[in-house]
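Protein modeling request. Please complete all fields; requests missing the sequence field cannot be processed.
Requester role: graduate student
Desired output: 3D structure, token encoding
Chains: 1
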Amino acid sequence: MANVSVYNMEGKEVGTMELNDAVFGVEVNEHLVHLAVVAQLANKRQGTQKAKTRSEVSGGGRKPWRQKGTGHARQGSTRAPQWTGGGVVFAPTPRDYSIRLNKKEKRAALKSALTSRVNDNKFVVVDELKFEEIKTKNFKNVMNNLNVSKALVVLAENDQNVVLSARNIPEVRTSLVNTLSVYDILKYNTVVATKAAVASIEEVYA
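Delivered output (206 residues):
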């Protein structure tokens, strides 16, 4: 089992914690991690783009000039793609971009992402994150004490004082254990988790 240091909000080491190898010590499957990231980004797409083809643009029913004798190239409609106001060639239509992964694949990808962060020493555990008031400056001070900047902060419960204090910091994102995603784990340089959050992750995914 991997051992990680546990820090307090002042950035001082207050102990160590053993991580469960079933979650934080698995063999990293880069292919599954890639699939999970592609799926998450694809599932965010609305797929509502639409343009009209020549059959959908109004007008253009009359042949603009006779077939022969004008000196012009032959034309059958003023709504053909080469005309101004004409239709679009291979126009985009609404479609569903979503990609489905089964539960086992999702869990394996998440474990791989967490393991990679632990292996790279980019997984920081804090004993707790508690604020008596909503203040961005206080949260920023904690991040400075832990010597992390671009961070994903994982919480065991939805503490509004913590979440709202972090909301205005551009390079910090808060996440609950049940909303943890592979993309967020990889997007941010460091994962900062409370002891309670680590215990909850191990309980859910072990």
